[in-house]
Amino acid sequence: MPEERQQPVGVFVGRTPIGSPAKLRHRILGIDPGSRTTGYGVIDTDGQRSLWIASGTLRVGEYPWPDRLGRIFDGVAAIVAEHAPHEMAVEQLIFARDPTAALKIGQARGAALCAGLKSGVTVHEYSPKTVKLAVVGTGGADKAQVQHMIRVLLALPETPCEDEADALAIALCHAHSMGIPARGRASASWRDWRP
């Protein structure tokens, strides 16, 4: 069951591990920006395996529009301060039929990006299709498939909500794109094999 805690910047709904897992060498924060709910996911990775550290959502939909941006900024800054990621991965804005919705999502995305950059975190961006391809194996995967694969890949005790799963998927996509040293990775075909 997700733990709910009230914060002055908005409402965080998230999970944190009971124990402290062995830290891998690189920590990534994934952000799924939204004008009402922003998902976040923190993983540790060594390029071959990834461990879930924390995830949840920042819910700001009940606040007036300008306040939402400040709360998203403050919320992401608080997550960065708490988990100290090395890098942040954010979903790129895709074409939307409703220009007003696209503008609001773009502004929410900008608030999240600025929070990461101001904290000194390197930011990377990925398209939704790239994220789905990295996690599910197909760029046309639906939300339920992403949620299922995130639960399996990170051995979560329960299925995360859509925004949380998307944020974790973005973090995993970046972990996969970081590259694995030739000797440490499995061969994809006989052409890639090296003793």
TrEMBL record:
Cellular localisation: Cytoplasm
MF annotations from Gene Ontology: crossover junction DNA endonuclease activity; DNA binding; magnesium ion binding
Binding site residues for Mg(2+) 1: 32, 163
Binding site for Mg(2+) 2: 91
Reaction equation(s) it catalyzes: Endonucleolytic cleavage at a junction such as a reciprocal single-stranded crossover between two homologous DNA duplexes (Holliday junction)
Xref: InterPro entries: RNaseH-like_sf (IPR012337), RNaseH_sf (IPR036397), X-over_junc_endoDNase_Mg_BS (IPR020563), X-over_junc_endoDNase_RuvC (IPR002176)
Cofactor: Mg(2+)
Cofactor note (record): Binds 2 Mg(2+) ion per subunit.
Enzyme Commission identifier(s): 3.1.21.10
GO biological process, alphabetically ordered: DNA recombination; DNA repair
CDD domains per record: RuvC
Keywords: Cytoplasm, DNA damage, DNA recombination, DNA repair, DNA-binding, Endonuclease, Hydrolase, Magnesium, Metal-binding, Nuclease
Membrane-spanning intervals of the chain: none
A Pfam family the protein falls into: RuvC
Main location: cytoplasm
GO terms for cellular component: cytoplasm; Holliday junction resolvase complex
Active site annotation, chain numbering: 32, 91, 163
Function noted in UniProt: The RuvA-RuvB-RuvC complex processes Holliday junction (HJ) DNA during genetic recombination and DNA repair. Endonuclease that resolves HJ intermediates. Cleaves cruciform DNA by making single-stranded nicks across the HJ at symmetrical positions within the homologous arms, yielding a 5'-phosphate and a 3'-hydroxyl group; requires a central core of homology in the junction. The consensus cleavage sequence is 5'-(A/T)TT(C/G)-3'. Cleavage occurs on the 3'-side of the TT dinucleotide at the point of strand exchange.
Assembly information from the UniProt record: Homodimer which binds Holliday junction (HJ) DNA. The HJ becomes 2-fold symmetrical on binding to RuvC with unstacked arms; it has a different conformation from HJ DNA in complex with RuvA. In the full resolvosome a probable DNA-RuvA(4)-RuvB(12)-RuvC(2) complex forms which resolves the HJ.
Protein name according to UniProt: Crossover junction endodeoxyribonuclease RuvC
Species assigned in the record: Thiocapsa roseopersicina
Lineage of source species: Bacteria, Pseudomonadati, Pseudomonadota, Gammaproteobacteria, Chromatiales
Gene coding for it: ruvC
